[in-house]
Write a structure and sequence with these properties.
The structure is a single chain. The protein is mainly α. It has one domain. Helices cover 76% and strands 0% of the residues. The protein has three helices and no strands. Helix 1 (2-21) crosses helix 2 (29-51) and helix 1 crosses helix 3. The radius of gyration is 13 Å and the shape is globular.
Length: 85
């Protein structure tokens, strides 16, 4: 059940990041899932630890997850040579 929750959370975070990076564009679910999972892991953990929240789910970790996923999507597009709009 934990793995399913992590996948759904990662998909949601990736979808939010995709909406910020390129609004109006159809979601690319595999890419959004990967961006959400990687961004959530790196950004969420980094912000949570910097804020002193530990590894508990707090608003700082969720914000860090979205910011991390946005960074992953921008990096992915830069490497792939895709336009950002």
């Amino acid at each position: 059940m934990l793995i399913l929750t992590i996948l759904v959370f990662g998909m949601f975070i990736g979808w939010l990041a995709q909406l910020v990076v390129s609004p109006g564009r159809r979601p690319d679910w595999p890419r959004d899932l990967v961006a959400g999972l990687v961004g959530s892991f790196v950004g969420g953990m980094a912000i949570s630890l910097l804020a002193g929240d530990g590894l508990e789910i707090r608003p700082s970790g969720i914000i860090g997850s979205v910011l991390g996923a946005i960074a992953v999507l921008f990096a992915w597009r830069a490497i792939a040579g895709e336009p950002t709009t």
